[in-house]
Amino acid sequence: MDGSLRPPLPIRIAFWLNSTIVALSVLVWIELLFAWIAVLWSIRESRFFGTPERPRVYIGFQFFGKPVDKRQYLEAGLLPDGFVEWTSLLTVRISVLFLGLVALGVLVLVKMRAGRNWARVVLVVLTAFGAIGSVVILLAASSGWVTLAGPAQWLLTVFALIVCLSTAVLLWLPVSAAFFQTAQRCRD
């Protein structure tokens, strides 16, 4: 494609909005990864559930809105042998998958900005899934099925929903469609 073909403003806005979502996703992944590593380390060192010498302050999670103490699982033998090793391996596999998806997302964004129509279609499909996921999270949180960690998580979920919806609109505006058609003609 000719390097002089500059994407119109809606394409540039969609590119940067989705780049922001990718960057925020990476930051959230890093935060979750470090939190999970800390939990696994604590379980491995038997500090997560407390010791007789140093009982822990309640650390639990919620299951359908009811607090559950993890110590009961340890005492009942419900944490199987190799749990830490298995979950560590699972964490690594999920991390590799996530980083692969981020790389794929960046590739789609770059190709969309370069005027590839297939990238526009892929991005709209991905943003449709993102919008559906955001709506499901917001509905589940408002009904009490899940708990969002404060106002920041609510705002990020609403921001993701707005970005998904605006991307779908921006990529199909007439000026955007003309850009993709011009880019196709330049490549032919």
Instruction: Give the count of structural domains.
Output: 1
Shape: elongated
N- and C-termini, Cα separation: 9 Å
Provide the residue-averaged pLDDT.
Answer: 78
Q: Uncertain spans, ≥5 residues at pLDDT below 50?
A: 54-68
From N to C, what is the helix and strand string?
HEEHHHHH
The total count of strands amounts to 2
What is the strand arrangement across the widest sheet? 1-2
Q: What is the number of helices?
A: 6
Task: Explain how this protein is built.
- Keywords: Membrane, Transmembrane, Transmembrane helix.
- The chain is mostly helical and 188 residues long.
- It has one domain.
- 71% of the residues lie in helices and 4% in strands.
- It is built from six helices and two strands.
- A two-stranded antiparallel ribbon has the order 1-2.
- A hairpin with a 2-residue loop joins strand 1 and strand 2.
- The longest helix is centred in the N-terminal third of the chain and has 36 residues.
- It is elongated and about 60 Å long.
Descriptive terms for the model:
mainly alpha; elongated; 188 residues; single chain; 6 helices; two-stranded antiparallel sheet
